[in-house]
């Protein structure tokens, strides 16, 4: 019968009786004595149910009718079940019901169940006893009036039936108070996991019940109960150890076995106290703000809203609760940490193990640093041609600029650039190694012994492995080392299609693409003249021609692209009504063409970019593609790389208007800023940077300070443009004044009206010059304040490459290299190009990098310097190698001028010899006085042997 309360398939309405019936008129006791049901009549029908745990309570019997909406009324029963079992997942299921309410509290109705919690009614121990008394009196009166003789055994059986009917199970609650929330019920039952779930869901922890109890007070009582149990268990454990001859009782043994559960409850109680303390602190802060707001409103004759006043009234309660839970957490923290099975103790043990590993690693790093520092000191004494190091830095910066131009102009790519740079670096290392023997001869004259393998080994470790950790490997001769570098540079890297990718998801993607292509290909072979299937196969082949394919290696993607074009032509020959597939194919074709251009080496044909622009244009003729922002983005990138800046600006500006909520709108705005900067239209460029700042960070690689620095650079370019225009206009005005004076002297009979027009024109021109002058001052103030703001931020975070003044920092190349690197990784190549260029030429504007001594100051130094004489030819060839660069000062210039420029770069970009020793000392001692990792000039090349661990 108890189960029928919840599951009565053929029942339309439950326990509905005619009005006027009394409780004692109907009584049903099942044979097994499992349940007792009574119905009270009157004006309002109520249900009273004795139950195992919880049972449904309905104010009206019609609510108990089985219908579609009845399940939504049972969430409170499910929530109480989850609280009793301390199961957060069951509580979550209950709170997912449409009618679930976090603010539900215990109510005490006039009739029926003792307490009600939503649709669930439950009874306390007292009401259970009352039910037993009612039943006993009812049976006794019936037997006495009927004069039936009942034996003692029969009376015992009757009483057992009454107990089963009145107490279907033990009472779940020893205490239930009106106004208790679900969180309070969970704490009373010591279900702390469910309590934490309810607290995080938003159940108010500062409310009181009708007796004035708070959640903090109940937590204190429950913690005292748990501590009593813990102390009792500790007493039993001590007693069992001291009196081994005495066996513990069965109850004491069970208490000892419950020790883990007790400590687990203590840990859960500690975590719950911490969560409540944090929430109370937030609430107290909010109440303080509400107090200030109320004072301001009182001046205006107003007051807070009703919900704000209610929140303000709970301030004292929240403060008291916070003090109590903080004290409880402090008392129980040490106890929880003492228990090895607690989460806090495990976390502390893991932290200790991790710290031990870190200490071991740091000790190893210190050992390697000391070893390499000794070698570095010797290398510094050997490598006296300091300008060679700085020419290498200039070469690296120049190569970075060439790479950026390659992405924007299409005449180089990453692979070819890497191979060329590796060859040049190998030749330079070889020349340095050749001069090593001459240095040894000069060193012997001074009586100094140098290791024969230190230089080559250091360069090898720095160039190939990059860490220098494997110093104990056998020495590799210089010739073998150079040959190995050339083999690595010349060897093409082709991914074999038979090699399966690593990782579960990569493997599933690989198998899915392979299966889709195979099935569609076999289907097309069976139906060779089905245009729709051939079109789908063409689209799939085009998809495999892009980087999205994990099944097709890069070396075969161009071939798949050609197959896709051929299949689409055949498909259109069989069926011309394939507009959707054609536009989908054109979109994929544009992506494939753009990626194919970036995949090719120096012979990359600009026709790839023009084909990509045409493909995207044909795709955008379909209305479905016009609402896809990625198609517009691909078209804009292709137009930018092909050099059509005006068309790219038009496309990007249209994207900003059409897709204001695009998730990559900040990146689109930054790309538009770079395009306008390339066109020297700096007003819209600054506007797009501000728009990107509102949307996010410009791209994932650029920080807020980077955006401010970019904005300052745009204002600086704007300022330079205004200065140039003002200079040109002033020259024109001088010419005009000379011409006008000569005209006045030669022609005195000119009409007065023409002279008036001339004076008006000059007046307007003077106004225009004054306006431009004011605007020029504003732009200068704008970029100066932006640079100083970024400098102050980096000074606070100790990220200005050492202790530097503002002038030293703004003219340091690493300041602009940091932003250029991030912009390059974000695909903003036009911005990166300008910042790379600034890193090369900005330090020329300042005299702070002047050298303190001459390069060659003795005969021995001159002899050492002559050993590296062939480096001049190498560097001049490297700097003048790329005739397509946009830097006029590096194009088609004679050898002597190039070498003079290289030495200038050494003077401006490089540091003096004292700084080299300072940097080496910083690496040895582990101090913070070293350069940033983001800087290209992060560490002097003289100290090649020190690894960047």
TrEMBL record:
<feature type="compositionally biased region" description="Basic residues">
    <location>
        <begin position="760"/>
        <end position="771"/>
    </location>
</feature>
<feature type="repeat" description="ANK">
    <location>
        <begin position="178"/>
        <end position="210"/>
    </location>
</feature>
<feature type="compositionally biased region" description="Acidic residues">
    <location>
        <begin position="728"/>
        <end position="751"/>
    </location>
</feature>
<protein>
    <submittedName>
        <fullName>Uncharacterized protein</fullName>
    </submittedName>
</protein>
<keyword id="KW-0040">ANK repeat</keyword>
<feature type="region of interest" description="Disordered">
    <location>
        <begin position="728"/>
        <end position="777"/>
    </location>
</feature>
<dbReference type="Pfam" id="PF00612">
    <property type="entry name" value="IQ"/>
</dbReference>
<dbReference type="InterPro" id="IPR002110">
    <property type="entry name" value="Ankyrin_rpt"/>
</dbReference>
<dbReference type="InterPro" id="IPR000048">
    <property type="entry name" value="IQ_motif_EF-hand-BS"/>
</dbReference>
